[in-house]
Specification:
With 204 residues, the chain is mainly alpha-helical. The chain has one domain. It is 72% helix and 0% strand. α1 runs antiparallel to α7 (179-202) and α2 (32-50) runs antiparallel to α3. The relative contact order is 0.15.
Length: 204
C-alpha cells in the first residue's frame, strides 16, 4: 500500500479502536451468534490495522475471511425478519448479514491483491518507509483489471459510509437508541469508511 505515513497511522488508530470495541462486544454481547460475529469483526479490524505496515500472509486470511463470509450468509438465511440488529451493527437483520458477508469477501480480495506478485519478494526486510513507497505494481492487485476492482470496491464503500453516517445521525438525534446500539452504528460507519480508504489506497 503506497500510503503516506500519517494516513497509515490514522488507519491503524481507527482500526485499533474498532478492534478494541469488537473485543468488548465479543465478550459482553448476548448470545453466541453475536459473539462470533463480533469476533470476526475483531479479526478484520486487526488485519486492517496492520495492513499499512506489512503484508500479512494471504493464506490464513483467505481461509478466515472466507469462513466469515459463509458465516454471515448463514446468518442471513437463519436470522428472522426484523431480528436483533445487534447481530449486524447498524445494518440489522438479513440485509445487514449479507452486507457483512460481502465485507468479509472483500477482505479475501484485499489479501489476494496485496500478495507479492513475485514469490521471491521478501517483505520482512522492508522498513516502514519502504512499505509506504512500494508501488502497487509489485502486488498481485497491480494488474489493471485488479486495480479497477479495488477502485470500484473503494467507491462502493465510500457510498456505504455516507449512508451509515446518516444512520448514526438518525439514531443519535432523530430516533435515539441505547448507547450500545449507537456505538455499534458508529463502529459500522468507521469500518466502512476504513474499508473504502484501504481499497482506494491499493490503487496508489
Amino acid at each position: 500500500m503506497g500510503t503516506p505515513a500519517v494516513l497509515g497511522w490514522i488507519d491503524t488508530a481507527v482500526f485499533t479502536v474498532l478492534a478494541a470495541w469488537y473485543a468488548v462486544r465479543a465478550v459482553v454481547a448476548g448470545g453466541w451468534r453475536h459473539r462470533v460475529s463480533s469476533a470476526l469483526h475483531l479479526a478484520m479490524s486487526a488485519a486492517m490495522a496492520a495492513m499499512p505496515w506489512t503484508v500479512l500472509p494471504a493464506e490464513p486470511q483467505v481461509v478466515l475471511f472466507s469462513a466469515g463470509a459463509l458465516w454471515f450468509v448463514w446468518a442471513a438465511l437463519t436470522e428472522p425478519a426484523g431480528g436483533d440488529p445487534l447481530l449486524d451493527g447498524a445494518h440489522g437483520g438479513r440485509v445487514g448479514a449479507l452486507y457483512h458477508a460481502g465485507m468479509m469477501a472483500s477482505m479475501v480480495w484485499m489479501a489476494i491483491a496485496m500478495t507479492p506478485a513475485s514469490p521471491a519478494m521478501d517483505m520482512a526486510g522492508h522498513d516502514h518507509a519502504a512499505m509506504h513507497a512500494m508501488s502497487m505494481s509489485a502486488m498481485t492487485g497491480g494488474a489493471p483489471w485488479a486495480t479497477a476492482v479495488s477502485g470500484a470496491l473503494g467507491a462502493g464503500y465510500a457510498l456505504g459510509a455516507v449512508w451509515l453516517l446518516e444512520v448514526v445521525v438518525r439514531q443519535a438525534v432523530r430516533d435515539p437508541v441505547e448507547p450500545g446500539r449507537l456505538l455499534d452504528a458508529v463502529a459500522a460507519a468507521l469500518m466502512t469508511l476504513g474499508m473504502s480508504y484501504g481499497f482506494l489506497a491499493l490503487m496508489t
